[in-house]
Structures are given as structure tokens and as C-alpha cells.
Amino acid sequence: MSTHPEQSNDDGAMPHPELVAHDDADAIYRDGRRLDHAEAASRLLRSRPEKQPRGAKIHGNRPIDHAKAAARFIAAPEHEKMHDERLWDLRQKRDREMHGIAEWEELRSLASAIKEHTLTHLDAYLDQFEANARSNGIHVHWARDAAEHNRIVHGILTGHGAKSLIKSKSMLTEECAFRHYMASVGIEVIETDLGERIQQLDNEDPSHVVVPAVHKLRTDVAEVFARTIGTDPDNSDVHYLAEEQREANRPLILTADAGMTGANFVVAETGTFVVCTNEGNADLSANVPKLHIASIGIEKIIPRLEHLAVFIRLLSRSALGSPITQYTSHFRGPRAGGEMHVVLVDNGRSERLGMAEFWTSLKCIRCGACMNTCPVYRRSGGLSYGATYSGPIGLIIDPTFNARKYSNLPFASTLNGSCSNVCPVKINIHEQIYAWRRELVKQHEVPFAKKAAMKAAGALLSHPAAYRAAIAAADWALAHLPRFIIYNRLNAWGKHREVPHPPKQTFHSWYQANRGGKE
Ligand code: SF4
Hints:
Elements: E1 29-30, E2 33-34, H1 37-41, H2 66-74, H3 77-99, H4 104-119, H5 122-135, E3 139-143, H6 146-159, E4 164-167, H7 171-175, H8 178-184, E5 188-191, H9 194-201, H10 218-228, H11 238-254, E6 258-261, E7 265-267, E8 272-277, H12 281-287, E9 291-297, E10 301-302, H13 305-320, E11 327-331, E12 339-345, H14 349-353, H15 369-373, H16 375-380, H17 391-401, H18 418-422, H19 429-442, H20 448-461, H21 464-480, H22 483-486, H23 507-514
Parallel strand pairs: 3-12, 4-5, 4-6, 6-9, 7-10, 9-12
Antiparallel strand pairs: 1-2, 7-8, 8-11
The structure holds iron/sulfur cluster.
């Protein structure tokens, strides 16, 4: 591969040659043909594709074994490497955008203050939104939980004789297991977001709040499409796959009876809501059928339209490292001859608002920046969490739904604080994760072995003489024992990394020797 900035692009291979900058010094050529961005970014994969590792197994209310599922993901090196690199790339792009805005920290503080103010006056702003939305001609419904949400939407669809629904990506509907419910009542749901559609066809949940299929290689997508829409299983070209999926999905979109979106922001003073996408798929869902239903979590509200600018500037930069989403669509009321419904959903949010240590997690704008930066998430994949929300924010939210089932998740963190540093609404994520660990111990939701290990560590650390003796013994063992004993089955650290070499002198003995024994 080589670069030829002066070479013209006249071979007709580019989908839109009129959009190509001819003096692009960074253009990449292969076999004399200029590659477009996606092709150039693609790397050749092994001829025998690595099998996609699947996520955590769910057994009723039993605690999710994140570590086991993460080990499966790590054991698939192509997937792990790709996942780590793609998300770190997003993190770096986010950093570049952040450095381009001098007032970035002020924006974060402002966003945090607006959200905290709104959450502490939530009832008043929700009432204001409802009154204004109704006067805009929107039907407003309230759902206490997931089951009520699903029943309400089903009722609206049945009232219109709707049998098919196109929808854009919404984490709230994942919380409500909405697709499964609709399947059980005989209504076909078609996801319009490409990543979400891939996940739907593969019968998997999204693994990331912004890029739902980020854990898949393109060979995985080729396999899914071959199985479900009949594409060539040996062709994993990204353009071919995207085009075939578009061809398969468009007729379903054009003939759907109803459309559904979520919302990124809901404005109380105008009774309007805003949806941000990069594919324009929410606009298709909202505008092609005459019936538009928006499912919205009650925490999405902001008081005034002027506040929106703060969040719009932060959202896409934090999420994908791009200055703005391609589509920022405002919905004010039904189109002529159409009908618009908003379902405002609680589903545990009021309860979380009453949790002194965790209520600020409701500030989350679902940008995914904390996931992109988290070393555990990047290497274990979102599906290993076995929950609707994964990554650092998931470790806080998931146990609020079910402390027993998600009791292992708050331990899937190094507590390095990077998540809190990148969060555009300044949630103290790592501190809340730590608070969940304490809470789970209080609720007796920590396994006996972990509790015993922590107790032993606590005893050791509170007795300096015993601690030093243990360190000396460990150093001796590392230096003298054969490798097969050190790297045994129980040494989780040594499974993927080298154990550190013992230092010749501990800090304590150096201190004793060089500081005259004064402590
Ligand atoms: S917690 Fe913060 S960084 Fe993470 S998704 Fe929410 S807003 Fe983004």
C-alpha cells in the first residue's frame, strides 16, 4: 500500500467521487486505486475468522459471572485487540475535541449543575413538560415500570391496528425487554440503527450505549447477515454488508405501521424533545409512519432550550470525538394527519433519586465516554457484564435494578478514576463504584471467599510486622520457586501477564537504611 496524493480519482470505484478532495495528502492507494476512508481503515483479517466470544450466561437471579465471560472474550485475541483499539481510538478522538474547546471544564460544570438542579426539581419540570407537550398536540403517558411501558405501547399500537414497528436505538427499551415483549404479542419490531439491527439479527443485546455492535469483527457481521438476510458468507467488505442490509431493511421501513424513538433530551419549557443520531434513522422512524411513539426516561429532562446547547456541545465530542452528531432532530408535535405519543418511564429512577450515594448517576447522558476509557471494559467487552448497561456507568446503575444479580459488577473496576475524569456531566463514577462495594458487603451480597480474602488482607495490612514478613516471604517465593508453581491455576494475575520481579530491597528496608530508621 502506498500514498499518491497527486493521483486522480477517476476509476469510478468511490461511491461519491464528487465528494473526494483531490489534494488530500493523506489519501491511501492500493493497486492503483484510491481507497475511501472505511476501506483504508479496514485491516485484512485472518482467512479463518476467529469465532465471536459470547457474553455472560444469565441464570435467573444468580449473580452474573463477569470474570468468566471476560475470560472468554480475552481468549479471543482478534476480538479483544480490535475492541481495545477501537474504543481507545474513540477516547483519543474525544481528547482531541476536548482540547479544542477552551471552556471545556466550564461546560462540564454547567452541564452537571443543570442536571443536578433539574433532578432536585424533577416533579415540577416533568409537570411543565407534560402541560406544554399536551398543548403541542402530543399524547403523554406515564409508566411506573418496564411492564407498564410495554403495555402502554402495545395498547397504542393495537388501537391503530399496527402490526409492525420501526424503531431507533434506545437503551430504555432494552431495560424494558421491549423487543421480546412485542414478539410475544405478535408485533414485528425492526431496528433502524445499523449496529442495533446487527445485534437484533444476532439475537444479542447491545454491548455499548453508542456503538452497540462494537465487539463484533466484520467477519462476525458477514456471518450474521449470511444467516439472516442471505448475503455471501465469504464477503466481509463493509460497503457490501452495509448496502445489503440497507436493501433488506428499507422496504420494511417504508411499509411499517408505526415508528418509535427514544430521546436524548426533553425540554420542559417548550414541551419538545430532541433525538441525536449519526445515521438519520430516528428521523425515518419518526417521519415515515404516521404514528410516532417516543419512550423516554424521566431523567432526560432539562429546563430550557438554551440549556440544550451545553449538552449538544458535550455529547458527540465525548461519545465519538466528533464535534456534533450528524442529525440533531427536534420533535414538537405530530405531523398533519399523524399522531405522536410520549411515554415517560420511571422504571426505578425515582428510587435511585432517593439513594444518597447514587442519585447523581441520573445525570448520565449515555455518551459512553466512561466505557471507552475503562481498561476493564475495553478488554472484556460489554456483553460480559450480562446487563443492560455495561462499563463503569453500568456498575452503578445495574445493581439499583437488582443488587443480587449484579453484585459482582462493582468489582469489575480498577477504580483508576479515568471514567470520572472523562464524564461530561461530572459523575463521580469511581467513587460510586466503591460505594457500591461497601453497600453490597452491608447487604451480604459479596461471596464468602471474597469476604474472607478481604478480611485476611485487612488483618495483614493492619499489622506492620506480619505485613513485612509476608512481603519478604512472597519476594523469596517469586525469586526461588519454579515457574510452574507460581503460574498456577489460582494465580489469576499471572494468566495474562508476567508477575513483577521482586526488588532487591523493599522500600521499607531502603527507608530504614537511608533515613536513619525514623518513620
Ligand atoms: S456516566 Fe458520564 S461518561 Fe459514562 S456514559 Fe454517562 S455521561 Fe457518559
